[in-house]
Amino acid sequence: MEHTNNVMDINKILDEARALKCSDLHFTAGLPPIVRQHGSLRKLSGYQDCTEPIIVNIINQITSIKHKSQISKGLDTDFSYTSATGFRHRVNVYRQRGYHAVAIRLLSDEIPTLSDLNLPATLGEFAMRPRGLVLVTGPTGSGKSTTLAAMIDHINRQKSCHIITVEDPIEYVHTHKQAMVNQREIGADVDSFAGSLRAALREDPDVILVGEMRDFETINAAVTAAETGHLVLSTLHTTGAADTINRIIDVYPPHSQGQIRSQLAGNIVGIISQTLVPTLDGKGRCAAMEILCRTDAVGAQIREGKIYQIPSTIATGKKEGMFTLDQDLARLVRMGKIAEEVGRERCQDPTEFKRYLEGGM
Q1: Which site in 2, 123, 142, 195 is 20 to 30 Å from 150, CA atoms measured?
Q2: Interatomic CA distance for residues 21 and 37, integer angstroms
């Protein structure tokens, strides 16, 4: 049955999208509501195409006066929205071709454990380190926030310590378990990642989660915090450990690059690069990863600027808990988790992938 007036009930649509295990919901002129389910976009059945009045009505159902005034100035606006059934969402309102459009990320109230996500034990070991820098990297929508939430939860269950998170916006809400967890949101509680990181050092934390290392100031503050005896977890939009290390070094002016190389060499705990791949049963997605663990060899490669050697160190570092993306994709194919063609599409080196597939690791 089609709903043919200018009103769509946002709470009802969000509940439908959640029941279908969708990650995102979109409203854009000329299409019915669109959902992302298991990584693919599809139309939500039973709805008419959205018009500008329908979208404006949707926006009015979910915004505060402050956000309405930002939207009326034509600004892209980010905020969080809690639905009638108590679920949290991350919302972005933007304009396209003169019309309003809305993108909504459905956030989960359940924080999955590392074992729920079938993540390697190495991530739990990284989380329990007393100090240093742990980075989770990958493109947008690759599950970085979920992996980090599971790692923070792992610490929260096992260690009596003070965890401070700085997020934009807060995605997973952590309750105090063994640890005390204080979560700060950019905009609502604090102005910027870099400023809040500097302030965090005066708030007696043991663990600091920085939602994203976006700029020089944030990267510099995160490295300093890791160096002064804190465990710092953060994300970057890079692919692979070598690319991540190069990105951090490149943010520094040439005369400081020697110093940041030696700081990273001493403070990096590990880099997890991940991507989400569709599972063979068609019911969801699973993470394929590359993991770098800091060893003396890795430290020396970073310090001496021989970053290009890191991929082969990862490929041969199985006993330290390291593996490449191609090794992990081959493992997922052998376990029957993902299709071989999916592995071939996502791998970095088809020849290596084939070798791992045939000969094991």
Answers
A1: 195
A2: 7
Are residues 151 and 276 part of one domain? yes
Based on the fold, state whether residues 294 and 160 are members of the same structural domain: yes
> How far is the CA of 331 from the CAs of 3, 202, 337, 340, in angstroms?
47, 44, 9, 10
DSSP string, 225-238: HHHTT-EEEEEES-
1-53 pLDDT tens trace: 444 567 899 999 999 999 999 999 999 999 999 999 988 999 999 999 999 99
Q: Which two tokens stand for residue 272?
A: 């997890």
Clarify whether residues 29 and 87 are in a common domain.
yes
Task: Say which CATH number the domain at 212 has.
Answer: 3.40.50.300
CA–CA gap between residue 359 and residue 351 (Å, rounded): 12
Whether the pLDDT of residue 64 is over 90: the answer is no
**Left, alpha or beta for 78 (phi > 0: left; psi -120 to 50: alpha)?**
beta
Ramachandran class of 141: left when φ > 0, alpha when ψ lies in -120 to 50, beta otherwise:
left
What's the total number of domains in the chain? 2
Please choose, from the candidates 65, 60, 147, 162, the residue with its C-alpha nearest in 3D space to the C-alpha of residue 111.
147
C-alpha 328: how far from chain center: 19
Q: Is residue 26 part of a domain?
A: yes
167 DSSP β-pair partners? 185
Q: Is residue 115 part of a domain?
A: no
Domain of 52, CATH number, reads 3.30.450.90
CB environment 77-104: b (16+ within 10 A), e (fewer): bbbbbebeeebbbbbebbeeeeebbbbb
Angle at the Cα of 327 from the Cα atoms of 21 and 248, rounded to 5 degrees: 80
Q: Are both 157 and 294 inside the same structural domain?
A: yes
| SS3 (DSSP) at 7 | coil
